[in-house]
């Protein structure tokens, strides 16, 4: 006897990630009439169990005249009661409008958070404009993880037992998604909104076992610095030093402009890294940390940078800090210079490191920590939260304290 949607049989024909659920049920005899089949089996068109059950239930009610097998609530009233929630798209638009003003201390960029949940929905073949907040369930999380594992040639949950870089990436994206619908955000950003009970199951998924992200010292770092100083063209040297001594991320190096430089030779120089919004091609910049940070630069290094900038290919001390006249000034061209060409040069020295250019940024952070013995100052220099800095450099700090005993 079918009394609720949970009484309908829902199953998968395949164990492949993202496979759709099927459902089948028998139409009660009292509702049989010409055109109504005695048995129904169809695809739900989704890999989410909760959504598949809803579709199966609605289909069952369509054959029974809008009521369940024992005479229940009409389907229109049931749907009205079942989905009083707004669409995910409405929530994301509201979050982008309100979060910057309310959550000024958020650890991750708000745009990045929204992009993370959009990627999750895309991988699960869902549209933020069409699904409501009650689609955010533990089943959705599991389907997303299965798809990501399949893309990496791994099997869920068999391969989840061992630490992996994929798990670290999933945890990072998951933190971004949770930042949108976390307790603080629901209290301050979504004040007065109605959220489904299933959201707690969606947000309470445990972290996966990730490979260690602690900083590993670079062997022969001094020789590496000397080799790059002697062998590279000015644009490549500039990229190397912005990462190695200023701790800039790849995207920040691509967006860096001479207008970011403040100060003078007498009082000292600073690079002011901040999110200036707007179009990068018109002088704007979009960086990860919206609060921004100021990075000190020695007079000797600044003089060398200015000398490089006046050389062929960099076009003087205005506009982009990293560019080459022979490849154009578009963002894609500069991204290739930084993320492809210079990264390939660094990878010769660090063949075992996956993000070779990013290792230079970590080296800069470790040196700041050793000089200041302050995790807070290290985090401020890198534009990270203290929690992230501790995850990367906790061992460096411990060794520094032990050396001082």
Percent of sequence in beta strands: 5-15%
What is the makeup of the main sheet?
Answer: 3 strands, antiparallel
Strands of the widest sheet, in order across it, are 1-2-3
**Mean pLDDT across all amino acids:** 80
SSE order, as H and E?
A: EEEHHHHHHHHHHHEEEHHHHH
Residue runs with pLDDT of under 50 for 5 or more positions? 67-83, 400-405
Terminal residue distance: 74 Å
Our Rg estimate from Cα atoms comes to 27 Å
Structure class:
mainly alpha
User: Number of DSSP helices?
Assistant: 16
Envelope shape: elongated
Count the E strands.
6
How helical, in percent, are the residues?
Answer: 40-55%
Would you write up a description of this structure?
With 405 residues, the protein is mainly alpha-helical. Helix content is 48%, strand content 7%. It is built from 16 helices and 6 strands. Strand 4 (261-264) and strand 5 form a beta hairpin. The protein is elongated, with a radius of gyration of 27 Å. Residues 67-83 and 400-405 have low confidence and may be disordered.
Secondary structure layout:
Blueprint: E1 9-12, E2 21-26, E3 39-43, H1 49-63, H2 75-82, H3 88-102, H4 110-123, H5 138-151, H6 165-181, H7 183-188, H8 198-203, H9 221-231, H10 234-244, H11 250-255, E4 261-264, E5 268-273, E6 293-297, H12 299-309, H13 331-349, H14 356-372, H15 375-382, H16 386-403
Antiparallel strand pairs: 1-2, 2-3, 4-5, 5-6
Question: Which terms summarize this structure?
Answer:
single chain, mainly alpha, three-stranded antiparallel sheet, elongated, 6 strands, 405 residues, 48% helix, disordered C terminus
